[in-house]
Design brief:
This protein has 434 residues and is of the alpha+beta class. Among the domains are: 10-120, no CATH class; 174-201 and 209-340, no CATH class. 27% of the residues lie in helices and 14% in strands. The strands form three sheets. A six-stranded mixed β-sheet has the order 3-4-7-6-5-10. Strand 1 and strand 2 form a beta hairpin. The longest helix has 15 residues, at 71-85. The radius of gyration is 27 Å and the shape is globular.
Length: 434
């Protein structure tokens, strides 16, 4: 393994993480003498070589003669301030105009759109996918990409009363592969992707998902996957929020995030480690129709599970095939109902108890209450025999039995899935348990 390169300029290190391992070869033995962005040897698999020359030009071009800042470094730091302070594109354009007017020799783009084009060359872009305003389909794939109207209900793809064709609804999807590849390609995160295997749990306490039963059971079921600690295990979290705060109460966004659980416990759940997967815009939650929107992500996950992807690991200076699995979903009770299709607002809302739930409806508030928590305690626990502090009875029942895969499939039989708002449903994705 060759020694890692050390960069005096943080921009060179960032460019190295974005485009692979950059080195200048000075002899036939492949020994690296100089690190930098002016000479490149890309050892990782790349599909965006067309951007490298332009990107290096911006990375080496000085902001103005005699200044230490490069054009790329200044734009990135300025854009970082925009994101941290929540500045609008209009405000950024005015700042760029002021800088160019005050310093005539400064080489800056005239509009914020041009600066975004420069930053986009770092990769990690998102894809806009037109969606039916009825939430019944995405205009994606050869069969639907060029349609002008919904194939299910004939609703127009475009916003009404617009001179130009503007999609009524647009899904922002952030492809998963390049983001996972960046975790291994980045010199600062690549070594952490092995943490769950290199650091042992000495006291047996659960501090990380790798200490739990699900992780260990998955290792036993898929030993080939578990043999390489760099294979990624993901958690999926989703929830809705209002991006405009108190300024608007009629607009919401349903976001989907992924968490890379290979990372250490003090890193994997920080916001800087979250992978934004998609942004679903709507005035209301997507509900049952979220299946339509997460289709690109599901296809991506299936491909990464079945085929994997060739990835460059900067910590070991080698290319390997990375495999990915989704082990958990993380959401509140409402989000659980949307993701899984489980009805969370009836007398059988508890997914753990399933049909073995104890029904209890509060007479004055007309709300369902979920009782029977003592049944999960050990058989000799004293709380099982205490009546006065609970519901006035002793608890003799065993915990509800866990559903097998065949049990779940049996419950899902004869469910007719129909998507779209206002559609006359012959069935529903929700499980009927009345």
């Amino acid at each position: 393994m060759q020694e890692a390169c050390h960069y005096e300029n943080p921009m060179e290190e960032m460019m190295n993480d974005a485009f692979g391992n950059y080195r200048q070869q000075v002899n036939n033995e492949g020994v690296s003498e100089q690190c930098g962005a002016n000479k490149i040897l890309n050892e990782g698999p790349r599909d965006d070589h067309r951007f490298i020359d332009e990107f290096l030009k911006d990375g080496n071009e000085k902001l103005y003669e005699g200044n230490n800042y490069t054009k790329l470094e200044f734009i990135i730091k300025l854009y970082h301030i925009k994101v941290l302070c929540g500045l609008s594109d209009k405000a950024m354009t005015l700042i760029l105009d002021l800088l160019r007017d005050a310093f005539q020799e400064v080489k800056l783009p005239p509009y914020v759109y041009e600066s975004k084009k420069i930053i986009k060359k770092l990769g990690l872009n998102y894809t806009k996918i037109d969606a039916c305003s009825n939430d019944c389909m995405l205009y994606l794939g050869d069969g639907e990409k060029y349609l002008y109207a919904c194939k299910h209900y004939g609703k127009s793809r475009w916003k009404p009363n617009k001179k130009n064709k503007v999609a009524a609804k647009v899904l922002r999807y952030f492809p998963l592969k390049p983001r996972l590849e960046r975790l291994l390609r980045c010199s600062k995160t690549a070594k952490h992707m092995r943490w769950q295997a290199s650091e042992s749990n000495k006291d047996g306490l659960i501090r990380h998902p790798r200490d739990g039963e699900a992780w260990k059971t998955f290792n036993l079921m898929h030993p080939d996957f578990a043999s390489d600690p760099r294979n990624v295990r993901l958690g999926l979290a989703t929830d809705g929020f209002n991006p405009f705060g108190t300024l608007s109460s009629t607009y919401s966004i349903w976001s989907v995030f992924l968490t890379p659980n290979n990372l250490p416990s003090w890193i994997c759940m920080k916001h800087i480690s979250f992978i934004l997967s998609m942004i679903i815009p709507d005035k209301h939650t997507p509900g049952n129709n979220i299946d339509v929107y997460i289709h690109p992500l599901v296809e991506n996950l299936k491909e990464l599970w079945n085929d994997g992807v060739e990835t460059f690991d900067s910590s070991s200076n080698e290319t390997f095939r990375m495999w990915v699995s989704l082990l958990w979903t993380i959401s509140d009770f409402h989000g659980l109902g949307i993701l899984s299709g489980w009805i969370t607002h009836t007398n059988l809302a508890c997914p753990t108890c399933n049909f073995d739930a104890e029904l209890c409806r509060l007479p004055h508030s007309s709300k369902w209450c979920f009782m029977g928590h003592r049944r999960f305690l050990s058989r000799n626990h004293r709380f099982r025999l205490i009546c006065a502090r609970f519901d006035g009875s002793t608890e003799e029942r065993n915990p509800p039995s866990k559903l097998s895969r065949s049990d779940i499939l049996r419950q899902m039989e004869n469910i007719n899935v129909t998507f779209g708002k206002g559609a006359k449903l012959n069935g529903t994705r929700k499980r009927s348990r009345e």
